[in-house]
């Protein structure tokens, strides 16, 4: 009898637990809330989609990314890169095919988590902002405006950039170093350790301030323009481009290209200053030789404002847009590929929530 009581008690407890679990799931369903396990899986899928989007888009334009940085930081007394085609040919001739992709491994190691955090942060920020906006306006059917999307994108950009900034800093140095550099960084982790030991922890965040200021219009405009343009196309359906309430991949690529072009043009001067500040303190970089054959030390900057002042004073206002052409050629496909890849991967993984949602 005792054993039967134990079995009966165990069976009863199991039945009660099952009923409780079913009740909880029913409650989640009634309230439109996902069960905790489902929510965690959805978050992981979203992060994976963002990471894949970043890695694919950045690798596709790696040669242009490297050339852009080389143009940004080259000394006016030692011009080696005069344009996109000439610059790519020079890299190919002096360093070979691998030279075109130098720093891409480090770049992907940074951009994959950066992109994952950025897309996920945008979804969370836009959801939070939309909820607050609906509460304040009293309109439960209100939708995000372009300005609110800009704010959500800015939040996402700041969070993602701050979380991965040290990797971006050393990636810039690895990209710039050449065979003539006395000291060679062997990889991202070696560079992180070397900068930390030789220059201190604060050196890992050199150029952080202009990055924060620049990421607001850059990432913010990327998301705001992309989403607003898609929303406008879906509502107006010009030339009948909308099929079954969906935009084609080509149309979404075009939306991403427009968003990327606008964002990077507005924020580009801050990106130039950020790169130059990242090079400050790197005493083992390749020596700079002037036109008179004399070795000239690179300029030192005391801060963002000082970097702006010295750059404009010594090289003119146009120096703030050095590398803009290869960057424009890079950004158009890069941003477009990132957005579309993100949405496609989420579709493949079966994530219900899209960026626009």
UniProtKB/TrEMBL annotation:
GO terms for biological process: organophosphate ester transport. Solcar repeats lie at residues 41-128, 144-232, 247-348. One of its GO terms (cellular component) is mitochondrial inner membrane. It is a multi-pass membrane protein. It is found in: Mitochondrion inner membrane. Its main location: mitochondrion. Keywords: Membrane, Mitochondrion, Mitochondrion inner membrane, Repeat, Transmembrane, Transmembrane helix, Transport. It holds the Pfam family Mito_carr. Belongs to the mitochondrial carrier (TC 2.A.29) family. This is Mitochondrial adenine nucleotide transporter ADNT1. It comes from Zingiber officinale (Ginger).
